[in-house]
């Protein structure tokens, strides 16, 4: 099997044995998948839509995978969308970008060709895929990824995770989200199997599925690992599990420590990672053997990448997986630029003597209380570590608001802890508890929701 071929290549699939995609109902070999993708790509070719835009809702099923791979082969540019995207948000995207076609949700051949004429001048030939930033779905601001972005990031992830053809990944992350998409891409690149599932640790049969399907790797955002912790993961026996990966935000140090200890005890590699959609998926990782010494770190750059700090302490990443730029309008899709090479992440960071990086906050995630500046991320991480809870720190100048998820903690205890730790006068602190935290479809906290909804509280 040639690793020089990209994961969507027909030649790669034909030279790969074993299962490519599995669900609770179907096991599809690489040869079977290749046949489906080839047949579907030929169907798309009849419409003469090369370098045209398509809207592709991604369900957790084989049809979505076939459509995605066929678009890559036919140089049709898909905007990957959550299958449950709100109708008004979809309409907004449609009005801004005016796609040439839209894929339906159910039948594989459910395709709507739009009435506007197909443009004689196609989109940039480097353009492969469009994604919403950080799993958001309401913004018309899109990340433009090239074929080389996809391929280079996929190769780098395969290298440091050491993915091979014997692996079977449990994928429950949305395929419209860069992290979920990278689980699919990397395992196809390595000739491994991807098990598509909608089950979460809160689902009744989640652990049975992991055991019965001989899953070798699981992946999730911090909320996923909090769910594992709450549902008795540490008491389960899963002999096939070899790799756990975590990204999509900072997991509290206490939980990182607990999962690291469990992983060592069960000969599992636990990878704490950092990434952004603008860098296709992954930017850095902590080698599992270093995790105990580097709790709280996002690690070192992935193979082929480089991390540095700007003069004001912002984390900067350079590498072949950095996007071609943003699109905010249809016109932006025609720009012929190649990859921009360097990404200012918007995260503040520090680096230790060993070259390991630590995120210290977001450039814009601050409030001023009585003239002093406080990092909301630092406050949030402190509370989650101290009380092993899920929370959001938000607010505006002269008001810090803490949202607790279904917590029985006394509000006064939270206020006192913040007062003691950060020397914040308690009159500036408000605690709201009892509700489920607002989250994006990928499980990450929806900070925009709290900014807009509660800024006046």
Compact overview of the structure:
The chain has helices spanning 10-14, 30-45, 62-74, 87-97, 147-161, 178-189, 206-212, 222-230, 253-265, 376-387, 411-422, 447-454; strands at residues 19-22, 27-29, 53-58, 77-82, 101-103, 111-113, 127-132, 142-146, 168-171, 193-196, 217-220, 243-246, 269-274, 284-286, 300-301, 306-309, 314-318, 325-327, 342-351, 357-362, 366-369, 372-375, 391-396, 399-405, 429-435. The chain is α/β, with parallel strands linked by helices.
The level of helicity is: 25-40%
Instruction: Write down the overall geometry.
Output: globular
Quickly give the structural class.
alpha/beta
**CATH-assigned homologous superfamily of the largest domain:** ANL, N-terminal domain
What would CATH call the class of the largest domain? Answer: Alpha Beta
Taken as a percent bin, the fraction of beta residues is 25-35%
Query: Alpha-carbon distance between the termini?
Result: 58 Å
